[in-house]
Amino acid sequence: MFNRDRWREIFETISKNKLRTFLSGFTVALGIFIFIILFGLGNGLKNSFQEFFLDDASNAIFMYPGKTSMPYKGFKANRRIEFDNEDLEDIQTNFPLLIEYTTPRISRSGLTRYKGENNTYTTRAIAPGYQFVEKTILMKGRFINQSDLNKKAKHAVIGRLVAKDLFKNEDPLGKYIDIGSSVYKIVGVFQDDGGDREERYIYIPYTTRQLLEKGNDKVDQIIVTFPKELGHVGALALESSLKKYFKDKKSIDPQDPNGIYFQNLTDDLKQSQQFAVVLQLIVSFVGLGTLIAGIIGISNIMVFVVKERTKELGIRKALGATPRSVIQMILQESIFITAISGYFGLLFGVFVLESIGLKLEDYFIKNPFIDIGTAITATIVLIIFGAVAGYIPAKRAARIKPIVALRDE
Amino acid sequence: MGSSSLHVLKGINFNVEEGELVAIMGSSGSGKSTLLNILGMLDTAEEGDYILDDVPIKDLNETKAAKYRNKFLGFVFQSFNLINYKTALENVSLPLYYQGIPRKERQQEALDYLEKVGLKDWATHLPSELSGGQKQRVAIARALASKPKVLLADEPTGALDTTTSYEVMDLIQKINHEGKTILVVTHELDIAQMCKRIVLLKDGVIIEDKKVEQVLASSYVQ
């Protein structure tokens, strides 16, 4: 019964003290707004980073054959090492539990034609497991499969930009393209988050490539993926046992730094993750800093507001306001103003973030967003601190004897 | 009223009957403000008793003091102390708000009191739109609104010119005439002589307490 009256009293006070209302409301709204914008942009930066560095699978080891630099077991130095089909099988038989997929990669560049259009693309001859190495996303059709390998089929999976270059608006699925001097049927189109270059590749079965190259069994590079559960240490152990196995098999001096090169993505991953953690820390720090600045802002305003009202509060007390009702009035007023303006700051911040969202990709800020939970928590934190900041001077003001507050200067 | 021993007040013992109009006089530092503060429950005496309408006023915490002030006392200040963003009507109805009286009722009552001080037409005006005398009349209406036992006026004419002072005193005399007990702190003799009794304070003690022949303020007001 009393409550409705109190609200009316508060609304009257708010609407008749516009500057004061505006100042405290604006502080909160601005605090929340800046918090959301900075936090969102920070998140955008993090997204770009993840896209750049975490696109490919992180659980892969690349093996590149090279030339030996030391004589060993009767072989001369400077001997070229090559991988072949047997090596692929050996990996699978010798490391059955540690390896998920094994795939070769034979890259060739060739002129590719479809009707009037032509262009030079890199063709990668691979096994089905390669899809998981590049984290390739299929837009249409399917990837190279085991049956393609067995039949040495002339099937190709082309990148999104290859399809765009050669086929324009036509549907490439089931069409035939010339690569080099052979005709391939397109069975799939893929996209890749790794950027334009990644989307200009053409994938064919490695068995088909071998058939074309006079039926040899060379596989160029070998890529293996391992279960993620292996972890960083497990991945390093796997790398060294692979190294040991192949150096032994290919008769390379164990001390020879050349011969076979290994690239273990788990190292990259670890570095990237550390960088991501640092980035996250920066984003959190900026967010926290803004929030603290907002809290200080609203605290100052509240102290000022109560100071300014000391005389009014003294009058109210002389007229019979209890200390409790004085504190209640100030708190209710400040919470009401901060909640409303915090909400507007929140809406405006999210709105601005949404509308600039796609325009900043050139500046390495992709899809800036703030999850609504964080935004609301920040708003509530600011409201609570506004209330606390109002409570302390309000309590002091309520304790001041009316006669002191009313004393003429 | 009881006696009190303090640095400022050193043994004050006096009694005010219902319906009296008492002027408390004294130079600055004589303790008249301290006395009024104790009477107004804005300050407490270290020793002694204060009995108001048969109720002993002691061991007051802030909340209790606020309730007693609201119930027993009406204040009129030298500098009016109206809330500047509230209209005359809202100012007058404020003590009624703290009594928990519903809005419609308290607005009607406040309007009645404004009419009584002759400012009904000024009900919707802000204090800044009123003259000094009008402000003090609004303050008096506000002090009366809570229907207090005692009206405490601290230099009610201190900020007003002579003519306006007499107008305000005329109003105070009329209210007293209707039976309200009023204490006026003043250092102006002509104002004090418009009361029915003068208590003269010096260095914290009463040096004189006499009934006087009341001068009617209305004789000065044209």
How would you sum up this structure, described in words?
The complex is a heterodimer of chains A (409) and B (222). Chain A is an alpha+beta fold and 409 residues long. Chain A has 2 domains: 2-53 and 271-406, no CATH class; 60-265, no CATH class. Chain A contains 13 helices and 10 strands. Chain A has a 6-stranded mixed β-barrel with strand order 2-3-8-5-7-6. In chain A, strand 6 (176-179) and strand 7 (182-191) form a beta hairpin. In chain A, helix 2 (18-53) runs antiparallel to helix 12 (372-399). In chain B, strands 4-5-6-1-7-8 form a 6-stranded mixed β-sheet, sandwiched between helices. A two-stranded antiparallel sheet of chain B has the order 2-3. In chain B, helix 3 (88-98) packs across helix 4 (103-116), helix 3 (88-98) packs parallel to helix 5 and helix 5 runs parallel beside helix 6. Chain B is globular and about 45 Å long.
State the total count of DSSP E strands of chain A.
10
Secondary-structure element order of chain A, as H and E? HHEHEEHEHEHEEEHEHEHHHHH
Question: Total helix count of chain A?
Answer: 13
* Rounded radius of gyration of chain B (Å): 17 Å
Helix fraction of chain A? 55-70%
Number of strands of chain B: 8
The total domain count of chain A is 2
Which residues of chain B sit in consecutive blocks of at least 5 with pLDDT less than 50?
A: 1-6
Query: What's the CATH topology name of the domain at 21-82 and 148-219 in chain B?
Result: Rossmann fold
Spatial separation of the terminal alpha carbons of chain B: 38 Å
Oligomer: heterodimer
| Series of H and E elements of chain B | EHEEHEHHHEHEHEE
How many helices of chain B? The count is 7
How would you describe the shape of chain B?
globular
Judging by the overall fold, what is the CATH architecture of the domain at 21-82 and 148-219 in chain B? Answer: 3-Layer(aba) Sandwich
In order across it, which strands form the biggest sheet of chain B?
A: 4-5-6-1-7-8
**Structural class per helix/strand content of chain A?**
alpha+beta
